[in-house]
Amino acid sequence: MVRIKRAYDEASADDGCRVLVDRLWPRGVSKERAELDEWLKDVAPSPKLRTWWKHDPERMDEFALRYRAELDSVAATQVAVAALRALVAEGVTTLVYGAKDPHVNHARVLAEYLAE
């Protein structure tokens, strides 16, 4: 089971394995407060894609297509996705992200990608 949760939300016991899926550390969150088990930077969108997207809701569909293409084709990303799939196979995994919007973020796309 894959869940998503903002880095600014409190960790809970039912989060299972908590994995930060951003390239950048969430501003203002201490390592202790984050309570992470892993940080897989390479599953995050490339800086070029993230800059193009700008978390614009109107670009969400196109972003999802481009991000999925990166997940399928970039070598470092494929290695990180394999590591993430291994964690998911072990049990509940929560993808932790820093974006403000719970619907317009890459973690939601990544969770759907992993579920397929």
From TrEMBL:
Pfam families listed in its UniProt record? DUF488-N3i
- Name-wise, this protein is DUF488 family protein
